[in-house]
Design goal:
100 residues; DNA polymerase, domain 1
């Protein structure tokens, strides 16, 4: 199955009501830790001459802020933090979390 952005015309034939549309983009968390992570990401992306989203997506930063990992092992469990990003950015992210 795939999603084309609107309910299928075949749902009515099956007597299935379409679920109400969800917002695709959630509001950014109102969290000082999230803001600190975004500041760090901007500084790091600027230093590396990369777009900020290449360092981490907003959703990954929000997940990090929500989980507040205490070590690299916990940080590695956050979706969006793969082995290379963990190695490259992990200690800096943990320092931001510790300072906040």
């Amino acid at each position: 199955m795939s999603w084309g952005g609107k309910p299928s015309r075949f749902l009515a034939e099956l007597d299935i009501a379409a679920a109400p549309a969800r917002k695709l983009r959630e509001a950014e968390p109102d969290d000082p830790l999230y803001a600190a992570l975004k500041r760090w990401r901007l500084e790091r992306a600027t230093a590396d001459d990369l777009p900020a989203y290449v360092v981490f997506h907003n959703s990954t930063l929000a997940e990090i802020a929500g989980r507040r990992p205490r070590d690299l092992s916990e940080l590695s469990a956050v979706p969006g933090v793969g082995p290379s990003k963990l190695e490259r950015y992990g200690p800096e992210v943990l320092a931001v979390l510790e300072a906040a």
